[in-house]
Amino acid sequence: MVTRVLWRKPTLVLVLVVGFCYGRQDKSVRDEFEPVLQPPNRVSLWPLPQKVQISDVSFTLSSSSFRIVDGTGSSSGPDCALLQDAYRRCYEYMFGFAKKSGPNHSRRTGTAELTELQVLITSPDSECDGFPGLSSDESYELSVNEQSAVLTARKVWGALHGLETFSQLVYEDENGAKSINATKISDFPRFAHRGILLDSARHFLPIKVILANLETMAMNKFNVFHWHIVDDQSFPYMSQTFPDLSKKGSYNPYTHVYTPTDVKRVVEFARLRGIRVIPEFDTPGHTQSWGKGQTDLLTPCYSGSKPSGTFGPVNPILNTTYDFMRRFFKEISTVFPDAYIHLGGDEVDFTCWKSNPDIQQFMVEHGFGKDYTKLESFYIQKLLDIVSTTSKGYMIWQEVFDNGVKLKPDTVVHVWINGASNEEMGNVTAAGYTTILSAPWYLDLISYGQDWQRYYKVEPLNFNGTEAQKKLVIGGEACLWGEYVDGTNLTPRLWPRASAVAERLWSAKDVTDMSDAFNRLSAHRCRMVQRGIPAQPLLYSYCPHEYKGI
Ligand SMILES: *[C@@H]1O[C@H](CO)[C@@H](O)[C@H](O)[C@H]1NC(C)=O
Ligand SMILES: *[C@@H]1O[C@H](CO)[C@@H](O)[C@H](O)[C@H]1NC(C)=O
Ligand SMILES: *[C@@H]1O[C@H](CO)[C@@H](O)[C@H](O)[C@H]1NC(C)=O
Ligand SMILES: *[C@@H]1O[C@H](CO)[C@@H](O)[C@H](O)[C@H]1NC(C)=O
Ligand SMILES: *[C@@H]1O[C@H](CO)[C@@H](O)[C@H](O)[C@H]1NC(C)=O
Questions:
Q1: Which of 14, 41, 463, 505 is the most exposed place for a label (fewest CB within 10 A)?
Q2: pLDDT per residue as tens digits for the range 491-505
Q3: Cα distance between residue 114 and residue 59, in whole Å
C-alpha cells in the first residue's frame, strides 16, 4: 500500500508550510485548545466508558495489602493464565511506579482502605483458553464501593478491559497516596473491530517493538492487530512450506525475519490482551519481494517483443500460480488462528500485464477485451475460492469490491481511499457487505499541529444509508504505513494519535466534547509515558512522571 499523495490537497500543503515557519506567531494555525494544566494524576478514563458515575467518596489503596482475586462463583479460577497475567499487569500499572515510601505513607487518617478487587466471570465458558474474535463479548461492569470492588464480565475479554479501566481509576492524591473513588461503570464497545495496522515490510519491525505496541493497544482497548507483514520491499515472514520466500525476499534472512516462534509469540502475547492478529498477504500487486524466492510467480514485463527483465504483479494466467497460492494459504490458515485473513488486492498496476504477449492472448481467449480489471477479478476470484477452502473468512481492500468481484457474504471490505469514503461506505453496505473504515485514519500522513483532533472528529456512520446498512459497519483501523517508520519512531508517532481513533471506535457516538477529550487524552498520554511508552505530547504541557528514556 503506497500512501498516495494525490489527495493531499494544495491548500493543506500551504498550511503545512506556513505552520512550519510561523507556527509560533500565526493565529490561523494556532491550536484550537490552550493547554489546561491538570492537577497531577486526576482521574481520566480513555476511552471513555459507556456509562460511568464517580462519587466523591474516596478510598486509599496500599501495595502491601491490595489484592486482585477470582470472585466466588466465577467460572474462571487460578488455572486461567490469561487472567492471572492480567491481574499482574493491572497491579503493576497501579503500584509499579510508586515512590519508594513504604505502605505507611499511603495511610490517610479517616480514609477507608480498599483491599480487594474481585473478578467474576459469569458465563460457564470463560473463553480463557480461546482466541478473541469478531463476535467476542467484551462488555463488563465495575463497581467500587466501601471496601470492596467487583468486576463482572461474561467472558475474559470483558474482564481484560475492566481491569484496564480499574487501573485508570487509581490516582495519587496530594500526599502521593494511591486512591480510588467509589465508582459504577457499565461498559461495552460501540464497534467490534478496532484495529491498528502496522507495516513490517517497508521497514523491519523488531518483535520487541511489535509487543510494546500490542501492550499499548490493550491500554487503549484496541482489539485487532492488522499485520501488514510483507510487501514489495521485503518478505520477512518465514514460511515453512516455501522457505526461499524469506531467505531471498527479506532484507536479511537471519536478522530481518519472523520465525514461526516469533509469530507464535506475537499471536499469544496478543491473545493474552484480547487482541486478534489478522495477517495481510497482499496480492496480486505489492508482491515484488515474493518473486525473489518463487520463480514464475510474477508476470515478466516486456519491452517491445522481448522480456525486459523486470516483473509485475502475480502472473494470473499460470496454473502454477494457483498451486502455489493453495499451498501457501493452507500454511497461513494454520499459523494464524484468527477466523480472518486480509488478502489485500489494492493498487494493481496494469502496465506490466499490458506489455506481456501471453497475457494479451489470455485476455482475448477469455473475452476480457482491453479491460484489465477483468483479469484482476479473474485472479482474485480464484484466490478467494482457494482461501475459502481453508474455512477462513477474508478481508480485502476496497478495490476488489469496486471491481465487482463476487465476494462471500461475510467478506469485510476495507475502505481506505480518501475523498469519497463516505459514499464508498454507502455503496459497500448497500451491497450487503460488512465494512471497516481506515480512509480518514492514515496516521503515517503527518502534519503540523494537533492532528488527533481530525481523527477524533470522524463519525464512521456519517454516510447516507439505512439503519440496516449502518449495522454492517463493524469498526475501523488506524494505519501506520512504514515508508518512513521503523523501530526508532513507530511508538511515538502512533501514540497518542491512535488513541483518538480508539475512543471514536469504543465510546458512545455523542462523546465528542473536544476540550474534555483534550484533558483526558493529555492525562492518558502521561499515563502511557509513566508506563514506559514513549507517547508523544499533544501540545506544551508536562507529565508528573516524565519519560526517562530506555
Ligand atoms: C474523588 O473524590 C475526591 C474527594 O475524596 C474528590 O475531590 C474528587 O473530585 C473525586 N474524583 C472524581 C473524578 O470525581
Ligand atoms: C508502618 O506502620 C506500622 C504500624 O502502624 C509500624 O509498625 C511500622 O513500623 C510502619 N512501617 C514503616 C516503614 O514506617
Ligand atoms: C490449467 O488448468 C486448466 C483447468 O484445470 C486446464 O484446462 C489447463 O489445461 C491447465 N493448463 C496447463 C498448462 O496445465
Ligand atoms: C458508488 O456507487 C455509485 C453508483 O454505482 C457510483 O456512481 C459511485 O462512483 C460509487 N462511489 C464510489 C466512491 O465508488
Ligand atoms: C447524503 O445525500 C445527500 C443528497 O444526495 C447529499 O446532499 C449529502 O451530502 C449526503 N450526505 C453524506 C454524509 O454523504
A1: 14
A2: 999 999 999 999 999
A3: 6
